[in-house]
Amino acid sequence: MSQTNLLGHLKTYGNPIIDDDLATFVWLGDTHPHLIGEFNNWGRLPNGERASAPMTEVEKGVWVHTTRLPRDAYIEYYWAADLTNDKKRAPDPHNPRKITNGIGDYNHYFVMPDWKPTPLTRVKKDVPRGKVTHFDIKQVAPDFYLPKRDVWLYAPPTDAPVPLLVVWDGREYLRRAKLTEIVDNLIHQRKIQPIAIAMIDNAREYRMVEYMSCEMAVLMVGQYVIPHAQKELNLLDIDQHPGSYGILGASMGGLMAMYAALRLPQIFGRVISQSGAFLFEVRPGQDDLFKFLVKSQPPLTAKIWQDVGRFEWLLETNRQTHALLTERGYDVTYHEYQGGHNYTSWRNVLPQALMTVFGV
To answer: What is the pTM (predicted TM-score) of this model?
Structure first.
């Protein structure tokens, strides 16, 4: 493509320029910042070092990088002024589409021609909506050491008793994943049974510790969150319907969803793990607690959904975890999507996950 055509396409369509399955990033200037994205594993190399996508100066002051991607991919990226400091970012003047990365910064994003967002996040006038209420964990556990955090309860638009779905990183699933909107629409379309939801906010700076196969988190859910939800919502009696509740999480929350089901199998018989962080060893060659339990105890009868993006660093460990669960006799529906480690991708997959574990 000539410089004239290239700059014309850049002005008309913005960054990157999409041509069938090719995405071409353009930077104008004497030099260029570092291009980092899901398509190059965020610049991570196997040896632990970092490298940006190579840029070619096709004309004086016109730098490009072209990559081939699946036609149904959703991709996030950013330009870095300093390869060693992710906080020093250079805004893309040719792509106004930005989204939070969840850790205090933003990424630019784009979609390939065949990617479509789920329509189930839309609020429609003819769809009955559930009711969302809120409480602080300290209200139900004032004398127990737990970091202060919010919990949101969703009651579906039905008078019948329903199963409960417990959600890690509840604030993110409520606001970014649009979980309640998706559930409203799926219930209305009779694609899932009515469910209630308890969305638990994470412990902020203690999130990694709390979600790393943590007994304290299991205790919090089993002794405080679920009993309070049973008082506030019209739930199925778990003693009469063992394993009827579900649990959901992404990344470290995806690991914690699996772990909680292993520890409370009489409660959680439906599990959704999105991009689970199955990558920890106690020391080289020694399994973490989650893998130890999977290998050492009889398999759960739970129905499990496991998904992961093909453009994230957790892909291989999720494949290994799926292979281990299958070998051990677990009922797992496994899905890989053309995207990375982000709530846009998880939101798009959520309807399929919910229909798999709570489908009618």
So the answer is: 0.94
For domain 3-111, the CATH architecture is: Sandwich (2.60)
Cβ contact 159:142 at 8 Å = no
User: Tens of pLDDT along 130-174?
Assistant: 999 999 998 998 887 777 889 999 999 999 999 999 999 999 999
Say if CB 183 and CB 156 are below 8 A apart.
yes
Say if CB 67 and CB 21 are below 8 A apart: no
CA distance 137 to 110: 38
User: Residue ranges of the chain with pLDDT lower than 50?
Assistant: none
Neighbouring CB atoms inside 10 A of 224's CB total 19
Rounded to whole angstroms, how far apart are CA atoms 103 and 119? 27
Question: Looking at the domain that runs over 119-358, which CATH code has it been given?
Answer: 3.40.50.1820
What does the domain layout of the chain look like in residue ranges? 3-111, 119-358
The CA-based angle 47-50-53, given to 5 degrees, is: 125
